Amino acid sequence: MLLALDVHYREEEAKVVGVLFHWEDAVPQDVIIEYIDDVEEYIPGQFYKRELPCLMKIIEKLDIGQLEAIIVDGHIYVDNDRNYGLGGRLYEVLENKTPIIGVAKTTFYNNETITEIKRGKSNNPLYISAIGIDLSIVSQKILDMYGGFRIPNILKTLDQITKNDSNSK
């Protein structure tokens, strides 16, 4: 089983969504939603300080030993020197036991720690990174995920649920 996570912020509140699925699934097996009041303020260059506590609210509800990997919307590393971004920080918090996969829609420099993949008919790549699991294998699995567009169906569903205000508390 895999877990994909996303967070949507509104002022000092956050909606955190996790979806559980298998690589071949078209739709999530389960959806977990948490609302958090008083999230940390955004500090440029230290986004993980705001995001990690939110992600942990979902992770703490699960037996992470049953997870093959966790997918985050972002990068594992912030530079070619392998300084940790959100994904790397999460890997550290989880004691380097659970593989983390970063799937990002943008990159911010010539990053040697990612693989670009193009899905569907899109000319825009997804930027895949990984820690604790082979990047080439993960990139192929993301490429093969269900859906004919740039973003795999599961990750698109996650994004829609996260941003859907009708699910507000």
Describe the structure.
The structure is a single chain. The radius of gyration is 15 Å and the shape is globular. The mean pLDDT is 92. The chain has a 7-stranded mixed sheet, with helices on both faces. With 169 residues, it is of the alpha/beta class. β1 and β2 form a beta hairpin. It has 4 helices and 7 strands.
Sequence of secondary-structure elements: EEEHEHEEEHH
Helix content percent band = 10-25%
Reported by name, the CATH topology is: archaeoglobus fulgidus dsm 4304 fold
**Any idea what the CATH architecture is?**
2-Layer Sandwich
Shape: globular
What structural class do the secondary elements suggest? alpha/beta
Low-confidence stretches: none
Q: Quick check: average pLDDT?
A: 92
Fourth-tier CATH superfamily name? archaeoglobus fulgidus dsm 4304 superfamily
How far is it from the N-terminal to the C-terminal residue, by CA? 28 Å
Main sheet summary: 7 strands, mixed
Separate helix tally: 4
Number of strands: 7
Protein name: Endonuclease V
GO biological process, one term: DNA repair
Organism: Epilithonimonas hungarica
GO molecular function: endonuclease activity
Key traits:
single chain, 169 residues, alpha/beta, archaeoglobus fulgidus dsm 4304 fold, 7-stranded mixed β-sheet, 7 strands, 25% strand, globular, endonuclease activity, Endonuclease V, endonuclease, Endonuclease-V, nuclease
What's the layout of helices and strands?
Layout: E1 2-10, E2 13-21, E3 30-36, H1 47-59, E4 69-72, H2 86-93, E5 100-104, E6 115-117, E7 126-131, H3 135-144, H4 153-163
Parallel strand pairs: 1-4, 4-5
Antiparallel strand pairs: 1-2, 2-3, 5-7, 6-7
